[in-house]
Amino acid sequence: MLKIQNLKKHFSGVKAVNNCSFEIKPQAITALIGPNGAGKSTVFNLVSGILKADAGKIIFNNKNITNSSIEKISNSGVSRLFQQSRLFNNLTVQDNFLLALNNEDTKFWSSFISLRETSADKKNKAAKILKLITMENFADTLARDLSYGQKRLVELGRAILNPHKFLMLDEPVAGVTPKLREKIAEILLMLKNRKETILLIEHDMNFTFKIADDIIVLERGKVIAKGKPSEIKDNPKVLEAYLGE
Ligand SMILES: Nc1ncnc2c1ncn2[C@@H]1O[C@H](COP(=O)(O)OP(=O)(O)O)[C@@H](O)[C@H]1O
Ligand SMILES: [Mg+2]
Known about the structure:
The strands form two sheets. Strands 6-7-8-3-9-10 form a six-stranded mixed sheet, with helices on both faces. Strands 2-1-4-5 form a four-stranded antiparallel sheet, with helices on one face. With 245 residues, the chain is an alpha/beta fold. The longest helix has 16 residues, at 178-193. 39% of the residues lie in helices and 24% in strands.
């Protein structure tokens, strides 16, 4: 589904992503893990077009999307949750969702295949996602009145709402309570059951080992290990990378 080949991104002296190569299988949860500064978010920024690569290739569904525009990449079906919040604090949860859907309407493909939805359709769609993230009682709550964890849930909802073939989630459970972590784990597993393809960045190994089908370990911009959680768990290189933090 997604193929990264010899990807490179340096920031003056820092080799953030350095000859990085890996592949993502469809209909599975893959976790990109590694110590802080390993280059995980930079890989996401390159895939979603926010940063331009110095070298290498990004192939999505057999299409070369290397250094394509953010809009083109999003239209090809890549949806993303950011590490930092991007909600509009002075809008309600529902309006944040509707705004995301209105943005969708301005995309050229939706007008093309006359997918423009009525406002009732949109409200319906927003309500379904609110239910999925168990936030149906918060539709009229202002985003600024939500707890940090609830905001993360709403942002996850927004990423799901965006029509997509591939979900990229940058640290969806960082800083949230253990209870909410469980909930987010459940949501992600439910999405996988619905045949979604998910690439997840997560610093916490316990969380990822529970839900990921495949794990890719980055250190200093390079893949140092990949495999099933059981194969990664006791890999001395991985333990060393984490301990060396
Ligand atoms: N826009 C940027 N400008 C300069 N350095 C950056 C920038 N983005 C990331 N870096 C550096 O690149 C390295 C990898 O960062 P990042 O991809 O955010 O790591 P991770 O997400 O794995 O914690 C770090 O050393 C970071 O300081
Ligand atoms: Mg990061």
